Amino acid sequence: MKSKVALVRCETYEEAVVQEAVAKGLSLLGGIGQFVKPAEKIVLKVNLLVGDPPEKCVTTHPSVFRAIATILSESGVQVQYGDSPSFGTSLAAAKKAGIAAVAEEMDVPLADFKEGREVFHAQGVQNKKFYIANGVLDADGLISLAKFKTHGLERFTGAVKNQFGCVVAMRKGEFHVKLPNAHDFGRMLVDLNALVHPRLYIMDGIMAMEGNGPRGGNPRAMNVLLFSTDPIALDATACRMIGLEPTFVPTTRAGMEAGAGTHLEDEIELLGDDFSSFVKPDFDVNRTPIHAGPKSSMLSFINNHFVPKPYLVESRCTQCGTCVTNCPVEGKAVNWAKGDKTRPPVYHYDICIRCYCCQELCPESAIELRDPFLRKVINRI
Fold it and tell me: Could you tell me if 150 and 218 are in contact, meaning their C-beta atoms sit under 8 angstroms apart?
């Protein structure tokens, strides 16, 4: 049977309009009863990368959260929500994103994403151990509310990448250090998805993020909500909307290889509104393939001069220190020069693992990804 992806046009975050759109999307997949039962404890895994206001398009919009939480509550489900942001607390991020206010109004509690337990994942293809938030492990099921965004390391972040927030924040850096290669990191995310196994994926693409995502990019109207039980098919469909080859996204390729879903067009059934009406060929996204990282020390040296590197635009830097704090490398690949916090930090590319945590979390979009000289030369050949 083909994987189903429902597409619903929605051009505003006005609550009544979003409520109708979400109800339509669920109906196209058979209704909410296909995914939950009364009295079950279901966690809404929102995207709370950091605490930014909704208009920046970094996080799941509160109107989308309200719509699905309302439908679940009316179905007799015990609804909770949560995520493990890259820094700060879940509640602080949820407050800034506008989700906490909705949750408080609806009496939807915040699940425990601060503490967690180690879980052995026997079926993992690459990764067999994860430290998962208690809120996820103690729930009956998970519904993933992803955000449609570009991503420096993985090209695109959507349905699959959203579950990285199920890993307790203090443990995320370990994966970046162990798996700096985008393909290995993508395989880890696929294993993680198989472990926590969301029952349904909903992607907020009413306003997406293009350019320097997942935090420093620009809002872009896509006017779409996407629904599926197959995260690979959902992400592949979103990629095709913006002219990005799905197999260039490591999670998409690894997901199909692991049997987690399909990215092939002839194996995906699109439901709802016309796909062509959502296509944005001028969407700002990196459309080049990601090359596998070499392993030997000599090849690693070459790789260090070939893989795009994070670059600090000093005129935008406010010396907030977010990049320094969140660099997972021992010794810090980006750090204050001689401890001087009055000037922009500097990079030490000889130890930089190209995880792009600094670029991902910079609140001023002051860090961009640029090709090293060798990469530019090869690209011209």
Answer: no
Tokens matching residue 338: 């001689």
**CB of 56 within 8 A of CB of 217?**
no
Query: Residues 10, 64: contact at Cβ < 8 Å?
Result: no
E strand or H helix at 207, and its extent? strand 200-210
Q: Which long-range contacts (CB under 8 A, 24 or more apart) does 327-331 make?
A: 327/357, 327/358, 328/173, 328/174, 328/176, 328/177, 328/353, 328/355, 328/357, 329/177, 329/353
255 SS3 class: helix
Per-residue pLDDT tens over the stretch 23-78 = 999 999 999 999 999 999 999 999 999 999 999 999 999 999 999 999 999 999 99
How many of the other CB atoms lie within 10 Å of CB of 369?
16
Yes or no: say if 59 and 99 are a contact pair by the CB < 8 Å rule: yes
pTM assigned to the model: 0.91
Question: 5-29 in b/e burial notation, b at 16+ Cβ within 10 A?
Answer: bbbbbbeebeeeebbebbbbbbebb
Domains for the chain: give ranges and CATH numbers: 3-278 (3.40.50.11440), 297-380 (3.30.70.20)
Q: Which helix (H) or strand (E) holds 338?
A: none
Average pLDDT over residues 212-233: 97
What does the pLDDT read at residue 302? 54
115 contact partners, CB below 8 Å, separation of at least 6: 133, 134, 168
Distance CA 284, CA 381 (A): 24
> What is the phi/psi pair of residue 81, to 5°?
-145, 165
Task: Write the pLDDT tens digit of every residue in 229-250.
Answer: 999 999 999 999 999 999 999 9
